[in-house]
Amino acid sequence: MPPNLTGYYRFVSQENMDNYLRALDINVVLRKLVCLLKPDKEIIHTGDHMVIRTITTLRDYVMDFDVGVQFEEDLGPVDGRKCQTTVFWEGDQLVCEQLGEKRNRGWRHWLEGDQLHLRMTAEDEVCVQV
């Protein structure tokens, strides 16, 4: 049975965000700004329904979805794209596949103790946040 991820998680660290954003064709000014942000996460996990809110001083981003059900995700606030997104469990990890213009785009969340880990991929780049 997958873990319940409900909680509020404070930013600890990140690695390789600039290269990840470059793979998404984000301009240099916005990349520099995003790299300065320290996003917190709030997750509400009720059965197969989840709301993941990424909270920053610049803007919040909300994903509201049912696990295992494909939906069109509007990533306009991130990089101006739309993609077909499916989120599913792979063991104890919540995995997201975002099909669209960019190859290998997606992310995975998992818990280590009370810390939420996030691994984001786009093309050949990987960014890790705790």
TrEMBL record:
One of its GO terms (molecular function) is lipid binding. InterPro entries: Calycin, Fatty_acid-bd, ILBP. It comes from the Eukaryota. Belongs to the calycin superfamily. Fatty-acid binding protein (FABP) family. Monomer. This is RET5 protein. The lineage of its organism: Eukaryota, Metazoa, Chordata, Craniata, Vertebrata.
